[in-house]
Amino acid sequence: MKNTVVRFGIYGAITICVLFLLSLTLGKNLSYSIQEVIGYTSMVVSLLFVFFGIKHYRDKENNGVVSFGKALAIGVLISLFAALAFGLLDIIYIKYINPDFTAEYYGHMVEQMRSSLSEAEFKVKLEELEAQKEMFSSPLMNFLLMSATVLIIGFIISLISGLILQRKPSTNN
């Protein structure tokens, strides 16, 4: 199991890094909402290795058998690789590649709220955004948030994959 988790975890981590770098270079002139869709799509694509890892373990290492619990554990562990890679990549991006990202994104969000909310709603939402801005200026918080996002999506994919791929031993007498 360990070899499968490490192998497919590394595949997922490499995939999420490559897709992040591709979207960074090819999508820098796109809107934030399009970039967000690309980001979530990159997460899901890289986490497809959860399914393939569980399937590999079941078919190649465990004689065609895997319990739901074992499949879920394998999937979550594979997801952890991609989650940690994405969290680290996000810190590198915000700290070194685009240190102005937080301020730019904050400005974008303020303008978006200003154009879509009443003055009273805007003031309330602006206070909430100010509190979040302080929290997200911390590299540790960014790491935790980005890693948790990937891990949550990975958990969901692990659940689905575990349900699809679970197979009990046959009881032929």
UniProtKB/TrEMBL annotation:
TM stretches of this protein: 37-54, 74-94, 143-165
Protein name: DUF4199 domain-containing protein
Domain of life: Bacteria
Family matches, as InterPro entries: DUF4199
Keyword vocabulary terms for this entry: Membrane, Transmembrane, Transmembrane helix
Species for this entry: Aquimarina rubra
Pfam families noted in UniProt: DUF4199
